[in-house]
Amino acid sequence: MSDKLLTLAEVSKLLDKPEVTVKRYAKESLLPSVKQGADLMFPEAAVLKYIEISKKLK
């Protein structure tokens, strides 16, 4: 597993969701995130895991 961090824009594109939705997911603890200065960053492994889980729910 990588510990690479993705930007809000990258996660938004990966999930095909608006940035505001990704921010809400972070706020609601659906996606783990960390603050780096003013930026919200997301662990890549957690984002990929979220994508896998959401595929199974469809």
Q: Can you characterise this structure?
A:
The protein is an alpha+beta fold. The chain has one domain: Multidrug-efflux Transporter Regulator, Chain: A, Domain 2. It has three helices and three strands; from the N terminus they run βααββα. It has helices at 8-15, 19-27, 44-57, and strands at residues 5-7, 34-36, 39-43. It has a three-stranded antiparallel β-sheet. The radius of gyration is 11 Å and the shape is globular. The mean pLDDT is 94.
What is the CA–CA distance across the termini? 25 Å
- Percentage of residues assigned to helices: 40-55%
Strand percent estimate: 15-25%
Tell me the count of domains: 1
The radius of gyration over CA amounts to 11 Å
Strand order of the largest sheet: 1-3-2
Largest sheet: 3 strands, antiparallel
Strand tally: 3
**How many helical stretches?**
3
Main structural class:
alpha+beta
Inertia-based shape: globular
Return residue spans where pLDDT drops below 50 for at least 5 consecutive residues.
Answer: none
CATH architectural grouping:
Orthogonal Bundle
The helix-strand sequence is: EHHEEH
The top level CATH class name:
Mainly Alpha
CATH topology: Multidrug-efflux Transporter Regulator, Chain: A, Domain 2
Mean pLDDT: 94
